[in-house]
Design a protein that fits this description.
With about 200 residues, this protein is mainly α. It is built from 5 helices and no strands. It is found in: Membrane.
Amino acid sequence: MTPTKNCKYHSNIVILQRGYVGFTLLSALGTVVSDGSDAIRLFFVRSSTGDCPIPLYSGKTAVMLMMPTVFCVNALGVMFIFIGIERAIATVYPERYEKMKSTLPGWFLLGVAFLASFGKAAWMFSRTKTRDGQPMVTIGEMEPFMHFATLGMQLAIEFVNILIFTLLHFCNKRRQKALGRLSSTLAYKYQVTTLKVLKKS
């Protein structure tokens, strides 16, 4: 169902907000699955084979269970950037933006967030190493380069988010002051006009 404009929000921000909420719910579900599988195995399931009584994950199963959460966390960071960009455009060009009826920008940004996050999660899954027989869900062992690269990506996303929303805050504050001065000027002109009319009468 395609979102439509209402009295409060433009259809593009509605798409991005719903996408953000969707990724948040999927992230929570992924955490429940990964942590829940660990909890069930640790507290309720026991194995009679091997030295460890806890059933171990085979191959990359432990990493695979972590990837949905990794995907959603990355998607949330990217979505936050896109929400900030959309709000910045809506603030700088309010009249022109409100007249735009196309929802293509919202769907495009949502698709970019999905593909970028999926690509990063797939890249991490293909490059991580793990020993067979993991007792708990893990992200795996990463090479130093990959570790610093993923950390740098996440820090860059957070820095861009801080920058965008800081600029948006000051832009909104400046606009509110301008509107306040305009309202004061109009109120003053109205009072002067009213006094002149009263004097003539």
